[in-house]
Write a structure and sequence with these properties.
Helices cover 34% and strands 13% of the residues. With 250 residues, the protein is an alpha/beta fold. Helix 2 runs parallel beside helix 6 (232-248).
Amino acid sequence: MLNQFSRTELLIGKEGMEKLKNSRVAVFGIGGVGGYTVEALVRSGVGTLDLIDDDKVCLTNINRQIYATRKTVGKYKVDVARDRILEINPDAVVNIHKTFYVPETADSFDFSQYDYVVDAIDTVTGKLMLVEQAKASGTPIISSMGAGNKMDPTGFMVTDIYKTSVCPLAKVMRRELKKRGIKKLKVVYSQEKPMTPIDDMAISCKSHCICPPGTKRKCTQRRQVPGSNAFVPSVVGLIIAGEVVKDLIK
């Protein structure tokens, strides 16, 4: 029967569509990368999605985040994402968690419930804990490395963390994962050397923070506010979604 996923079924077949429909994927971080991952997963037919993020849409998110518009500024990203998911597929199950994933909140999540985990957060401690929890439960995970301060969307590739180079975040992750005895991790990364953001305080969130009221983690608290654009984080998010879909239908 013709439906919104018919074109996908022409490629992966009925069995593949059933696998996606019966899969549950957790996406940690619904920003520039994670938002596009979620978008592609729901349009691919993934039946259940867990969205984890405590952030609200900010005006400065509009340049790169799919859920950020003038109308959604000030709303929780997971709320906006859930509404859009259900507009695309009313039969989808969406579980939202308005939580910032850190070691202190890690126990709130049972990774054995997930068929796949997407790491699209930007803190090293959180990323390491995600990997450790996923490995402990035997749940597949894919992690996004640095996407900020970059301009070349064609430079991103999928590989194992121990085959990465150049990327500063990947270097830290390699070192810390080795200490923890974790021997492999699928990542998306680029060898493009990160740019240095223009030092212009007139347009910097560091001195002119406009985060919506109630935002817990303001830009003024960050060591550096990275530059970004519409075409790098989105590509990373779509690459991640493609890997998740391919792995789920194996």
